[in-house]
Amino acid sequence: MVTVVDRIGQMYRKEYERNPVFTLFLTILIAFFIVFVIAAVVTGGDSIHMVFLADKRDTFMDHFNSIKYSSDHPYTRFHVIYPPLVTSFYTVLGYLTIPFVDVASIEELAPALRSSQMGIMSFLIITLVTFYALYLIFSRIVREEGIRKELMFLFAVLLAYPFVYALERGNSIIMALVFCLLFILGHKSENKYVRYASYIALGCAAGIKLYPAILWLLILKDRNYREAGICAAIVAVLVFVPFVFTDGSPLIFFDKVFSYASANPGFTNLNQIITGIFGEWLGLSEGGVSVISYAVIGTFTLLSFIVILFDKEMKFWKVLALIGCNLVLGLGIGAQYQIIYMTPAILYFLASEKNMTRENLFYVVCFAMTMVLIPGLAAPWLSAAIGVEAYPSAVIGAVESFFVIVIAIALLREGIVRIYRGRSAAHGAEATA
Q1: CA distance 156 to 152
Q2: Residues 219/183, Cβ–Cβ less than 8 Å
Q3: What CA–CA distance (Å, rounded) separates 418 from 104?
Q4: In angstroms, what is the C-alpha Rg of the chain?
Q5: What is the distance between the alpha carbons of residues 374 and 32, in angstroms, rounded to a whole number?
Q6: Residues 370, 342 contacting (CB under 8 angstroms)
């Protein structure tokens, strides 16, 4: 007699034989999700709220604070850290939403917007449009059929920790990701209008979060200098020209961005990790920590760019992964949602790799561990294990960032070795000739 368990096992084996890479990746995500749900039930929901920001009154407030900050001298009064393009976007949202709230002072504006009908509708509409666009792009890249595609989108995007964290914050990084993916899809198109549209998409991504501009390296890697110049010009226009609509300037903006990035607490990027190790654990001076941090991040970035530009044999998804590693570890503010930038590499990896080799097994596990929902209940144990006292969400971000570091090391090692061997072989051939 065939039981339900037997049927499920047979179905799973069939799926695994069809595409072991995709199936194992999805299995890891689902397994962690089941544990996450069980932990939530056992703790009465405590393990869920522990994975988010400590201040529970701050839910969605990145969105509403951005509207507030953009409504009155964003750069000189509120010192915003967003580029002027997205700041102008939030200014427009302010024109549509602020008239519908009544507050005594601007300090009360953001929570009042979150409590208002027009305010919450603005957030809901933007979120729905963004995720629908993400689904359409996802479907274009990951060519799975039926329930496989739906499950993959559900667990790899909607229920992935970086996305859940970004959504809880109300952060615009998911919009930036949509534009990044549009650029990746179109930057090699033979249709020049599609290519230029993709360059505009990259400019929009940089105009939202600035650092995605390094995806420009994908064009430079192909030695297409004319197209690289056109793309760079479009990105520069979309990043800098919108300053004319604000009270800011590039000098004010970059000064605030870099000071905020260096001061942001956590354990997600290299600066935060180095600060924790050399500053908090070893008691090194702030100046000494800064020197070490700049040296490590500079070396990591330089080596990454060398591999990206000169390793001609590196697979496309690996190039995307190395760029993603830089956006998570070396650039940006080091928030947990930064791990979202690993998504393009994961999608292209799953779309192109079908056989379960040792290498693919390694990347399946590492990629999955950057996205899984880890119960907040596990954070105190993890914190004790690594000897760090921090809020659970920061510890969870550190765990997922660890796997980003592992991926970065593996990719750099592979690329550097291949470049070295290629140069050695070239020198040998010249000597023989």
Answers
A1: 6
A2: no
A3: 63
A4: 23
A5: 7
A6: yes
Residue 331 three-state SS? coil
Say which residues have a Cβ less than 8 Å from residue 65's Cβ, sequence separation at least 6: 110
Cβ count near 10 (within 10 Å): 11
SS3 19: coil
Angle between helices 20-42 and 358-369 (to 10 degrees): 30
| DSSP code per residue over 370-415 | TT----GGGHHHHHHHHT----HHHHHHHHHHHHHHHHHHHHHHHH
- pLDDT of the chain, 433 residues: tens digit per residue: 557 777 778 888 888 888 899 999 999 999 999 999 999 999 888 888 888 887 778 899 999 999 999 999 999 999 899 999 999 999 999 999 999 998 888 889 999 999 999 999 999 999 999 999 999 999 999 877 778 888 888 888 889 999 999 999 999 999 999 999 999 999 999 999 999 999 999 999 999 999 999 999 999 999 999 999 999 999 999 999 999 999 988 988 888 887 776 666 677 889 888 888 888 777 788 888 889 998 999 999 999 999 999 999 999 999 999 999 999 998 777 789 999 999 999 999 999 998 999 999 999 999 999 999 998 776 666 666 655 566 778 888 888 999 999 999 999 999 999 998 887 766 666 666 5
Q: What's the CA gap between 228 and 420, in Å, rounded?
A: 26
Measured in whole angstroms, the distance separating CA 209 from the mean position of its chain's CA atoms is 10
Cα(24)–Cα(218) distance, rounded to whole angstroms?
29
E strand or H helix that includes residue 169? helix 161-169
Euclidean distance between CA atoms 1 and 376, whole angstroms: 41
DSSP 3: -
Q: At what angle do helices 358-369 and 343-352 cross, to 10 degrees?
A: 150
pTM: 0.93
State the residue for tokens 């290498």: 359
Q: How far is it, in rounded angstroms, from Cα 96 to Cα 100?
A: 8
- Count CB atoms within 10 A of the CB of residue 150: 13
CA 122 to chain centre: 23
Can you state the angle between helices 225-240 and 84-97, rounded to 10 degrees?
40
Phi, psi of 96 (to 5 degrees): -90, -20
What lies within 8 Å, CB to CB, of 214 at 6+ separation is: 323, 326, 327, 331
